[in-house]
Every structure is written in C-alpha cells, then in structure tokens.
Specification:
By secondary structure, this protein is mainly alpha-helical. It has a single domain, classed as Alpha Horseshoe (Serine Threonine Protein Phosphatase 5, Tetratricopeptide repeat), CATH 1.25.40.10. The protein has a two-stranded antiparallel ribbon. Helix 1 packs antiparallel against helix 2 and helix 2 runs antiparallel to helix 3. It starts with a helix and ends with a strand. 12% of the residues are buried.
Length: 83
C-alpha cells in the first residue's frame, strides 16, 4: 500500500490537475482506515473537477492529450490502426 501511495503522489507532482490520483489516494487511505486523509483527498478531487463522475477513460485521454499534444492521432478500425 505504501508503494501505491508513493506512486500516486508522484503522479500528483507531475500533474496536480489530474483527478484520478487523488481519488486513488482517497481509496488507499480509506483502506488503511486513515479516514481524515481519505476525506481530504476526495475534497481535493472534487475541487479539481466538481463534475467528475468516474469516467476514467475520458480523464486518461485528457491527461494524455496534455502530456503528449504532439502525438499523431490514430484511428483504430476493425483492429487496424490508421494514421
């Protein structure tokens, strides 16, 4: 669990506007029965994105777009990747 928290903290240092690491930390703290810390992480997640409703795929795509804006867009059709 400590390793997971360390990894999540690293993600937050890289991009503190990405909501998923805060949510992950809240879950980890809750599992460790550190309820005050869990509540704080959930509060931060909600402050960053009040409309967050658990759409992980969209958030990951948004993060990738911010981190790799120059990456060429590719489309997958029937298992074939087209440029």
């Amino acid at each position: 669990m400590k390793r997971r928290l360390t990894h999540l903290k690293t993600l937050i240092r890289r991009d503190n506007t990405f909501v998923l690491p805060y949510y992950g930390m809240a879950l980890a703290y809750n599992k460790l029965e550190r309820f005050g810390d869990a509540a704080e992480m959930m509060d931060r997640a909600i402050m960053i994105d009040p409309g967050y409703q658990g759409n992980r795929d969209k958030k990951v795509a948004d993060m990738n777009e911010r981190l790799y804006p120059q990456r060429e867009k590719k489309k997958r059709i029937c298992g074939i990747i087209w440029k």
